[in-house]
């Protein structure tokens, strides 16, 4: 029955391309040759990348070649050596191979961002090209990632999952202080694009469910590990995974037009985005159950009262008020903000990764259930809307 429903769903959307099998980036590490090439590339950079980036490069280089910092800490007045020591020491026990990979990634993002910045007029946003489903800009210390499928209410298709991860990885290494996620159009996001379920690979629905769980786990992992302050600017209604991952953001600003809806039971699914843990901590088990089990849709005011949203603004002044605040935040010392976030969040990271793994494994099973298949088929055949 379940497989029949999947096939039915596939028949409605035969034009969707077969999902590219996702390659786990974590499994790839840079070779010594890549590392050496990157070191040479640094010497060829036409523009000075700035002190903060240079410190990051220094720290990653030392970690990649010598391992964790075990040098004595320089005195407070030895400013330059102390800054270098701090940058290296911050990497803790990061493995040499990961440091090598991060160094190579940083140099590559640097080469492309410094090249493209030279083509941008002064005073305008530095726009990253190469995204199909997002708009990404970086200006005044703020990297802004805008979900950009307004005609589909910013539903997150497979390409968008990958692009968000790519944009977050780039933002974690660029010279911005804070990162913002928002939506273009009237919705923040309608959550997972339900047509994601219609591209069945040769291995069948089981393989599809397995690939989706791998993708989801990596996607949520990027939010758990994001090192800089991450702010959601919720411009309109939010559904599903776009709501659950809010528990992993540092600040959530919402328009009074926004709503927060996690209709997992209606869809035969179960909570993700670490919400089975974060929502309970944020709002307590009863309120979390109303949302995650019974699919109660919250207004922005209710979400703020529950602690999921930091502040709500009238829609007419939303952008102005929020961006005034964000611009002020972006002027604060970036290292202090990053380190404070680390202090606030790091002790939870291991737990969050464990919760993420468990939620994905439960969902992998759920996606194969008749309840889920029927809900997806109903949506695709427009028999039901939330
Ligand atoms: C790799 C897999 C990881 C999975 C992670 C697990 C994630 C779980 C979730 O996120 S669960 C939540 C899933 N989302 C939904 O169930 C929402 C479905 N959408 C709707 O119910 C409605 O579209 C709406 C209430 C969001 C908006 O309704 P309305 O204002 O009437 O607009 P339309 O329905 O006409 O929508 C316009 C246009 O957008 C398409 N669309 C909207 N949302 C989705 C979506 N989530 N998936 C796919 N397509 C969506 C809709 O079909 C319309 O397209 P069309 O103009 O007909 O081509």
UniProtKB/TrEMBL annotation:
Superkingdom: Eukaryota
Compartmental location: Mitochondrion; Peroxisome matrix
Annotated function: Able to isomerize both 3-cis and 3-trans double bonds into the 2-trans form in a range of enoyl-CoA species. Has a preference for 3-trans substrates.
EC number: 5.3.3.8
InterPro entries listed in its UniProt record: Acyl-CoA-binding_prot_CS, Acyl-CoA-binding_protein, Acyl-CoA-binding_sf, ClpP/crotonase-like_dom_sf, ECH/Chromodomain_protein, Enoyl-CoA_hydra/iso, Enoyl-CoA_hydra_C, FERM/acyl-CoA-bd_prot_sf
Gene Ontology molecular function: any one: delta(3)-delta(2)-enoyl-CoA isomerase activity
Homology family: In the C-terminal section; belongs to the enoyl-CoA hydratase/isomerase family.
Organism per entry: Sapajus apella
SUPFAM superfamilies the UniProt entry points to: Acyl-CoA binding protein (SSF47027), ClpP/crotonase (SSF52096)
Broad EC category: isomerase
Name of the protein this chain belongs to: Enoyl-CoA delta isomerase 2
Presence of the UniProt keyword rRNA-binding in the record: no
Catalytic reaction(s) noted: (2E)-tetradecenoyl-CoA = (3Z)-tetradecenoyl-CoA; (3E)-octenoyl-CoA = (2E)-octenoyl-CoA; a (3Z)-enoyl-CoA = a 4-saturated (2E)-enoyl-CoA; (3E)-tetradecenoyl-CoA = (2E)-tetradecenoyl-CoA
Domain (ACB): residue spans on this chain: 31-116
Keywords assigned: Acetylation, Isomerase, Mitochondrion, Peroxisome, Phosphoprotein, Transit peptide
A cellular component annotation (GO) from this entry: peroxisomal matrix
Pathway: Lipid metabolism; fatty acid beta-oxidation
Record-linked PANTHER family: ENOYL-COA DELTA ISOMERASE 2, PTHR43684
Pfam families per the UniProt record, alphabetical: ACBP, ECH_1
